[in-house]
Amino acid sequence: MVDLRQVREELNLTQKGMAETLGIGLTTWKNYESAKRKPPKEIVEKVECLLRDYQEARDHEMDTAVTYSEEDIKEYLLNALDEKGALKPVFVDLVNRYMQMWKTSIELEHDINKNGVSVMGATGPKKNDSVALLVNVNKQMLIVLDKLGLNANTIKPEDGADV
């Protein structure tokens, strides 16, 4: 059995909104959510379908949020270094470290998209730590680019779009 309250909260719906979405009364939904009454199979299936559709849409949104692949970005950075005559092992290592930070930033963005900027802590709502971590990771990424002598203007792809 799914946790109805958890599902409703993941869908960002109020109890009233969930009841309306399912076409049932508010009191009926409250009884299902509080486990005072067991929902019929068709309601459970509708809730599971809503959650599945929501998660698929969210996952698709996250998948399309990354404009460039890891390989593309790494190639752009290495090409920019090569054009500057700075394609040395120590700088290639910095590019690899940059790419690790890029992957971390994507994971943090996914967490923020999934959980929002505040999450439930043991004592109630609290800030999502991923927000501050993302800011710090982005700062570190900019520092690495600066140390490599690169900026957005030097790593534009052939089509002229920003990386």
From TrEMBL:
Ranges where the HTH cro/C1-type domain occurs: 4-47
Entry superkingdom: Bacteria
GO MF annotations, alphabetized: DNA binding
Name of protein: Helix-turn-helix
The species this protein was found in: Proteiniclasticum ruminis
